[in-house]
Amino acid sequence: MSKRITVLAGDGIGPEVMDEAIKVLDAVSAKFNLSYELDHQLVGGAAYDATGTPLPEATVKSCEQSAGILFGSVGGPKWETLPPDDQPERGALLPLRKHFGLFANLRPGVCLPALTHASPVKQELIADGFDVLCVRELTGGIYFGQPKKRGTNEEGTEFAFDTMIYTKPEIERILRIAFTAAMGRDKRVCSVDKANVLTTSVLWRETAIEIAKEFPEVELSHLYVDNAAMQLIRRPGEFDVLVTENLFGDILSDEMAMISGSLGMLPSASLGKQNDDGLYFGMYEPSGGSAPDIAGMGVANPIAQILSLAMLLRYTFGENDAAKAIDDAVASVIADGKRTGDIFTGATGEAKVGTAEMGAAIIAAL
Ligand code: NAD
Ligand code: IPM
Ligand code: MN
């Protein structure tokens, strides 16, 4: 299998946190005697500025020839008024997900024990832990449904619309991913929809009930998305696996990230087809964005990027020990009191550090 990883740092804090992830990869490779070939390519606003397109052909080619993609983040105010196809998000990130069929987005929201007081929810609600896997459908729904259009009608009124569409096979495959993940966890799946309003959600809920029959050991529950947003804050400790469509998953996963302390803590894996060895081609990226408000200041939290690297090692290369070593190093640095600004609360024993210092501490812990 190819040992090549395409590295797409992107915009804003992307390159800053990516630097730390690459240093961690070097360190973990040395420790576990692994070797990877990294191919750095342009994506997003940085690619647009350099080449006139947010997703150059060379970038796609490189990804096609790699085992997986380590992605930073794209976008920012500089590019948000470009025509949609030239924008970093719609012209690069979404096309990459679609092109590689990365329909399964895993976002593991975990509040580390030493970070419970950095979470905005009451301490006692997560005293027994917050550990939720959000399984977000990533290549369907309203993000990609056609038609998608802006126009002016005969009366001269401007309008815009998006189409929310799911086929049954698209729903079945993401549910199977969620149920399979639940089998390795607490065997509970909460399917989130809006079946009281949306036709796509009615199909989603019926399909969830059908797929659940393939996994008799797993308990299935359903929540409407508005209630789910509320219940996540009311009883965060009671969720195990949450499965939902593209847009709902986008929103709920940011909420989960904050329950775990910060958006800068939540990694993600976007997976497509599994090969015969059970490994995936995947794209691995922080759940948060380019954070223009802190970009270039050296203060961004690199942990989401570093944990995304761990997910790459686990899901694309099957290097479970190396992945676990990274997860453990992150946990120990947090337990030691090192905090970037987003998770710093000023509590006794906490030391505020920048992006590079956090990366160095994680490498030292490795
Ligand atoms: P954002 O996730 O970039 O930032 C939201 C808030 O979280 C900001 O206050 C930011 O400083 C903070 N934050 C995020 N990551 C952090 C980190 N690692 N460390 C510390 N703080 C962190 O969301 P936004 O401001 O709505 O979007 C900014 C740009 O990023 C937009 O162009 C958006 O489209 C893009 N975006 C890209 C991705 C991606 O590339 N995967 C994901 C989300 C948003
Ligand atoms: C995410 C981001 C993207 C999404 C944007 C940047 C297109 O918010 O990965 O969560 O909505 O999927
Ligand atoms: Mn998002």
UniProtKB/TrEMBL annotation:
Residues noted as binding NAD(+) in the record, renumbered to the chain: 76-89, 289-301
Pathway: Amino-acid biosynthesis; L-leucine biosynthesis; L-leucine from 3-methyl-2-oxobutanoate: step 3/4
Residue ranges constituting the Isopropylmalate dehydrogenase-like domain according to the UniProt record: 4-362
Reactions this protein catalyses: (2R,3S)-3-isopropylmalate + NAD(+) = 4-methyl-2-oxopentanoate + CO2 + NADH
E.C. number: 1.1.1.85
Gene3D superfamilies: Isopropylmalate Dehydrogenase
Alphabetized SUPFAM superfamilies for the sequence: Isocitrate/Isopropylmalate dehydrogenase-like
GO cellular component, one term: cytosol
Major localisation: cytoplasm
Domain of life of the native organism: Bacteria
A molecular-function term among this protein's GO annotations: NAD binding
Classification via Pfam families: Iso_dh (PF00180)
Record keywords, A-Z: Amino-acid biosynthesis, Branched-chain amino acid biosynthesis, Cytoplasm, Leucine biosynthesis, Magnesium, Manganese, Metal-binding, NAD, Oxidoreductase
Binding site for substrate: R97, R107, R136, D226
GO biological process: L-leucine biosynthetic process
InterPro entries: IsoCit/isopropylmalate_DH_CS (IPR019818), IsoPropMal-DH-like_dom (IPR024084), Isopropylmalate_DH (IPR004429)
Cofactors that this protein relies on: Mg(2+); Mn(2+)
Binding site for Mg(2+): D226, D250, D254
Cofactor remark from the record: Binds 1 Mg(2+) or Mn(2+) ion per subunit.
Record site feature (Important for catalysis), residues: Y143, K194
Protein family according to the UniProt entry: Belongs to the isocitrate and isopropylmalate dehydrogenases family. LeuB type 1 subfamily.
Described purpose of this protein according to its UniProt entry: Catalyzes the oxidation of 3-carboxy-2-hydroxy-4-methylpentanoate (3-isopropylmalate) to 3-carboxy-4-methyl-2-oxopentanoate. The product decarboxylates to 4-methyl-2 oxopentanoate.
Protein name: 3-isopropylmalate dehydrogenase
UniProt organism field: Persicirhabdus sediminis
Native organism taxonomy: Bacteria, Pseudomonadati, Verrucomicrobiota, Verrucomicrobiia, Verrucomicrobiales
